[in-house]
Design brief:
The protein has 222 residues and is α+β, with helices and mostly antiparallel strands. It is built from 6 helices and 6 strands; from the N terminus they run E-E-E-E-H-E-E-H-H-H-H-H. Strands 1, 2, 3, 4, 5 and 6 form a 6-stranded antiparallel beta sheet that branches. A hairpin with a 5-residue loop joins strand 5 and strand 6. Helix 4 packs antiparallel against helix 5. It is flat. The protein starts with 10 loop residues before the first strand and ends in a 12-residue tail after the last helix.
Length: 222
């Protein structure tokens, strides 16, 4: 099998990809679109309220194998594209004289997440709690201990803001961006904790604080 070259770092979608919910009908290896002249791929058949959908992508095999909820045939699942990577593969074309020319073709490969529908529903609830700046952290972590590390990260972000950002409005905006980044990662099903803050030599860098001053809109590192 041809190995990809010039593999790019995986990219995550900047906006939420559509979540496809339905009953898992079948999955397995097959030539793309079940055509003999196409390359090997992997398919997922999902019966949704809009009809049967057949999803294609080599990464679906990994997504099924590494699924935390391990759905079976007949399970109600959620499927979401989480990002993609690009790479080039060797290709051959012919010029006007019929001579074969060796070239490269750029290919994009999607990455996927496949979990039970209940998993995604629970993540939406957790994300809602994290977004609520007025929620009691002690009570929330008592009922949802999986959020302990997330709230510890929020506390660390608050400590950074108090030490390095003088303006109260900039400080509040910084904390709001950190909270939103965490909530979005949780909602999308990413592993917890969603955000890790690095404090070089026990102190935050000036760059971290300056990113959230002067009207910049970049999200915190995740």
């Amino acid at each position: 099998m041809t190995q990809p070259s010039n593999l790019s770092p995986p990219r995550r979608f900047s906006t939420d990809s559509r979540l496809i919910v339905g009953r898992l009908e079948a999955h397995g290896s097959a030539n793309y679109r079940f055509r003999a002249d196409q390359s090997p791929s992997y398919f997922l058949k999902v019966a949704t309220n809009r009809g049967l959908q057949i999803l294609w992508g080599k990464d679906l095999a990994r997504a099924i194998a590494e699924s935390r909820t391990q759905p079976k045939i007949g399970s109600i699942i959620g499927v979401r594209r989480t990002g993609y990577e690009t790479f080039s593969i060797p290709a051959r074309t012919r010029d006007a004289t019929g001579r074969t020319i060796e070239t490269e073709r750029l290919v994009k490969r999607n990455s996927w997440m496949v979990e039970s529908a209940q998993f995604f529903a629970e993540r939406v609830q957790l994300a809602r709690r994290v977004r609520d700046a007025h929620a009691d952290a002690r009570a929330t972590t008592k009922s949802h201990p999986e959020l302990v590390s997330t709230y510890l990260s929020l506390r660390g972000a608050q400590a950074i803001a108090e030490r390095r950002i003088a303006d109260p409005k900039d400080r509040a905006r910084f904390l709001s961006l950190v909270r939103e980044a965490m909530a979005k990662s949780i909602k999308n099903g990413e592993p917890l904790p969603a955000v890790r803050l690095h404090d070089r030599s026990k102190r935050p860098s000036d760059t971290t604080a300056r990113q959230y001053q002067g009207g910049k809109t970049d999200e915190p590192t995740r």
